[in-house]
Amino acid sequence: MRHSTDVSRAEKRQLAVASASLGPWGAAAAVGAIGGGVQLALKTIGGDFGLGILTGSLSVALMLFFLVGGTGAVLGRKTGTDHRIRRWARAHPWKVAAVPAAALLVTDFVMRQILSSEGFFGSLWDGLWRAALVACVIGVVGSVAASRRG
């Protein structure tokens, strides 16, 4: 039997993805939909129309979705799951945070390329800073929660 220090890089990636998948993704979808809807309503009331407001609203929705889901994954409050994966997630919040951040980067970039006239590097930059923000928030929340547990 291998100890936790003998985990290969591929196994660490699999553990990070498995840990991130344990987040509250249903609640995250609801928060993302509400946040994106509010953004869309505010922009529409402000007199803006077009694909630009739709792109911005979808970007906010995606960011909230991955932020809530990833944060829930590192906090690990869901019952009925593999406790070993939860323990690993609590011990490695920054590795778990990388999964939703990478997923946000890809989905935001693709969405911007399809729906907007934004260039390649503009879309990449927007996705990168949003992904970095999501990774930082999830990592800090997970680190603080782990230090408080003891």
Succession of helices and strands? HHHHHH
Percent helix, as a range, is over 70%
Main sheet summary:
none
SS-based structural class? Answer: mainly alpha
Q: What do you see in this structure?
A:
This protein is mainly alpha-helical and 150 residues long. It has one domain. 80% of the residues lie in helices and 0% in strands. It is built from 6 helices and no strands. Helix 3 runs parallel beside helix 6. 34% of the residues are buried. The model has no long low-confidence stretch (mean pLDDT 87).
SSE arrangement:
Blueprint: H1 9-20, H2 25-45, H3 51-75, H4 83-91, H5 93-115, H6 120-149
Features:
150 residues; mainly alpha; 6 helices; 80% helix; elongated
Question: In short, what is this structure?
Answer:
With 150 residues, this protein is mainly alpha-helical. The chain has six helices and no strands.
